Amino acid sequence: MFDRDIWQEIFHSIKNNKLRTFLTGFSVGWGIFILVMLLASVNGMQNGFTGQFNDDATNSIFIRPGNTSKAYAGFEADRRIQLKNDDIEYIKRSFPEDFVDISARFFRGVSARYKAETGSYSVQAVHPDHQVIEKTIVTQGRYINNNDIATGAKVAVIGRKVGQDLFKTEDPIGKFVEFNGLPFRVIGIFIDEGDDNAERGIYTPVSTYQRIYGNTDKIDQILLTYNPTYDLARALEFSDRLETLMKRKHKVSPKDQSGIRVWNYAEAFSDISSFTGVLSAVSIGVGFLILIAGIVGIGNIMVFIIKERTKEIGVRKALGAEPGQIIKLVLLESVFITALSGFIGLLFATGILSLIGPSMQSPAFTNPSVSFSTVLTATIILVVAGLFAGMIPAIKAANVKPIVALRDK
Q1: Which runs of consecutive H residues, i.e. helices, occur in 54-175?
Q2: For residue 166, what pLDDT is reported?
């Protein structure tokens, strides 16, 4: 492989066919470039989609009430479904082996005031399990606990931006802030890595806000996480059972899709995986088609070069050159052109990604990149492609009869 004479002949052949070699190599390099950029784009979209769901536990289920669209069990259509505290207890009793964490949500807006600073914010009154479901990161103090729920304590966990708005440079922990004129003690500060706007929110005990708003037992939503060992099929089966049970309890038709909506993160991830899988397949297909065009080009140029060197090959065979030596010469030239041009395309693509990738950040597109396994696979493809591109011309050259070749003009 490292025979000096062979490599001199390869470089001599490339030198005498500069334009054809460049155009053929360009098509291979362009194919690898497109393949890498397409795969990086698909990864960027997948990262963006996944990042949008990272705010919550990936095994989360959301139960949201709505208005019924069908008359059922003696009730008219367009009936408003109202969730209550006993719905949570009902789920706990019905699915003790399936759920892990569960919490209510009770939404309200408040006008907050601390000294001379005021602001309007959204409050979510929740249970302690909500921290796990929402992946809430408490940076100071603590989150709501069961004792706060039991006593209906007027305590609040505020977002980082709420703290900046109301307290400026003061430490909010232990201070009292008024929500619609009622004093609440700040017990914690949280951040949200996936959504800055969430840091303008406030968490309080659900029991506290239910008492403030007329001693009600009403809630707006229910969130829960299911057993993390469940695969996709079992997770979807659980959410179907949960939806059936909740509709039965609230006298909602099984075919009514608006009375009670149960949304499972597993379904969203399944859809995203299917979508990105199709995109990956399409991008790989397009890249391979372009690469094949380059391989065909290399095969053509090698056939043309062999036709030009027919007499030379005949002389070599007349002087005792073995067919294997002729095949080796042609294959090495083909692999060299393919690998060199492909590596240039690969380096160019990875260079562009490293330069502009970090700046291409959006909710739906994050960190476009290619993995080491992709680069390794592309490298193997290059070598194999070069072998296939030169195989037919190499066999043709090896089968040239010396007497015929010497007569060639």
Answers
A1: 85-94, 130-134, 146-151, 160-167
A2: 95
